[in-house]
């Protein structure tokens, strides 16, 4: 693993050096175009790649922009982007990934259908398929910035390339993600603290049980946003329209009432500041199935790493009612 | 004033005595019917009337039922009901009242139009009229359980009958009231603490300025409901549909952020308990115009007493979008 990172760092450092060299030695008449060819994003990626491969790899800087979700996925496939996708490709639907061996697929599909708030299904791929129709030309084994590989209910490893672990008869589930409405919130003047603070969103296990299905049962995981008390109603009204992105909050304020004892100690992601005029707003999170599959002791599954999502071609307000 | 109350107490005590006498001395074959003729509501009213005439006259017992809003208004006109209308005639729109002399009417109408969240207009009566079309056969001078008479920005007196104070060329404004969606909240499993605790709702001045208009400016007044943190989203989604009843909350949690220092010390109504799993939810309140007219030092106006509303014939979901 560390060798991979070193290789990436080395490659991207070389690219940065070459870009800076081009910028520093302009030929007459070509200064402007040389500067324009310095891709701001490429420079950022060097720092991305220097982040340790952990739960909490932060969002670097302001939201990056890519020509298209497809371009973004290609960058991810080339390991040029390995961070949280919070704020990436605003206006596009992002998805959680769960990959299960065929024999567990029915129970999991049933689980999703019984828990649509926590697990809104965007797409279920055919057995053995690893291209999603909602992400044209995608390879689900490589197009997510970071994966978690689980064995016997425990995290085995994290990786930027799930290909070696992908079971031949796997079923891939794409589940909506609350990042999808972030653009709409921003547009409505509701900023995202995690983006402001360059952090992955904080996520917490709750004591709220899911509806069990087949072999699967466990507890809801939530993500948290601090929202100004006078903006809560607007936040609820906007998010409620995004059923495929978990919809309206599960809980507003009172973290203890859903079993969260310490907001500064999230189970995934990083804690963010909450100002005196803000309340913590908790939304269903697509990490819920990871928690449930762990709690249920499934022998093997693959997921995205929390906060590191598949960016699809769908508009984030796809299916907004 | 005290003479009025004494007369009422005396009258209603006589009625109670007579009802109890009828019940205690049944004639053969008429026991059942005699007991049935004891109107539970009549007995309640005795205790209503014994309440001192103050800001905080509590809601007595469970919501009372009346044959129709019209019957309720007639009972009010006869001084048989003098309490808060919280929980009365569920499913009917309730209204705040403001009565101004003609020369202030245009400025106030402009004020309402600039502050539709705080002052949603249900009806503006013609100059000199005291019957509302939204309350058939009503007499706005007598059909509200309790009135406030203001002079030079200060409360002059409270009364059950505003007739002697009603200016000949007055304009009456009926403004929506958040009691109107209480039925929808109850139906959705969201109980009302003020009804549970037999209290008038707590109302607070805020530091949120209204949009000024003409001679009028001042601060928003809010009412407060404790709502379970896991029910806040549902509360917002339901109330947001009731634009004529102030719509979605102005603020959820963080009372200080809107200038409320002590929830236990409301400016009108009574404080209610907030449980550990609940957040205080603040809605725009129709007492706002009273506050604004006081702040603006209007020489004279009449209003309902906070919590003591006009019950209209309109369905509470009239104008729900």
Q: What's this model, at a glance?
A:
Chain A has 321 residues and is of the alpha+beta class.
CATH architecture of the largest domain in chain A: 2-Layer Sandwich
Largest contact between chains:
A-B, 23 and 23 residues
Number of separate domains of chain A: 3
Compute the gyration radius of chain A: what is it?
20 Å
Oligomerization category of the chains in this entry: homodimer
What is the helix tally of chain A? 9
Q: What order do the SSEs of chain A take from the amino end to the carboxyl end, as H and E? A: HHHHEHEEEEHHEEHEEHEE
Query: What structural class do you assign from the helix and strand content of chain A?
Result: alpha+beta
Largest sheet properties of chain A: 7 strands, antiparallel
Q: What is the 3D form of chain A?
A: globular
Number of strands of chain A: 11
The average pLDDT score of chain A comes to 82
What helical percentage do the residues of chain A reach? 25-40%
Classify the beta-strand content of chain A into a percent band: 15-25%
Q: Which runs of chain A of at least 5 residues are low in confidence (pLDDT < 50)?
A: 1-63
């Amino acid at each position: 693993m560390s060798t991979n990172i070193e290789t990436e760092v080395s490659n991207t450092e070389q690219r940065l050096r070459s870009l800076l060299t081009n910028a520093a030695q302009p030929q007459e008449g070509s200064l402007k175009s040389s500067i324009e060819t310095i891709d701001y994003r490429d420079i950022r990626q060097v720092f991305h790649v220097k982040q340790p491969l952990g739960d909490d790899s932060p969002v670097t800087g302001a939201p990056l922009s890519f020509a298209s979700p497809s371009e973004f996925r290609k960058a991810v496939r080339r390991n040029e982007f390995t961070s949280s996708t919070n704020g990436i490709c605003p206006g596009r639907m992002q998805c959680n990934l769960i990959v299960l061996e065929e024999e567990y697929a029915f129970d999991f599909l049933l689980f999703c259908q019984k828990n649509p708030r926590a697990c809104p299904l965007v797409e279920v791929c055919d057995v053995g398929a690893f291209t999603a129709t909602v992400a044209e030309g995608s390879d689900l084994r490589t197009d997510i910035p970071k994966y978690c590989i689980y064995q016997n209910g425990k995290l085995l490893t994290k990786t930027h390339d799930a290909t070696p672990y992908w079971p031949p008869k796997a079923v891939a589930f794409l589940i909506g993600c609350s990042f999808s409405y972030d653009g709409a919130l921003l547009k409505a003047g509701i900023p995202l603290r995690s983006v402001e603070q360059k952090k992955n969103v904080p996520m917490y296990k709750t004591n709220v049980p899911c509806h069990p299905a087949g072999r699967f049962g466990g507890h809801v995981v939530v993500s948290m946003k601090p929202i100004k008390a006078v903006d809560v109603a607007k936040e609820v009204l906007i998010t409620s329209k995004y059923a495929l992105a978990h919809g309206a909050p599960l809980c507003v304020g009172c973290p203890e009432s859903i079993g969260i004892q310490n907001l500064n100690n999230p189970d995934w992601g990083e804690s963010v500041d909450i100002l005196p005029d803000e309340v913590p707003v908790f939304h269903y999170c697509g990490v819920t199935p990871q928690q449930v599959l762990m709690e249920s002791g499934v022998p093997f599954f693959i997921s995205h790493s929390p906060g590191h999502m598949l960016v699809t071609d769908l508009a984030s307000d796809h299916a907004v009612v």
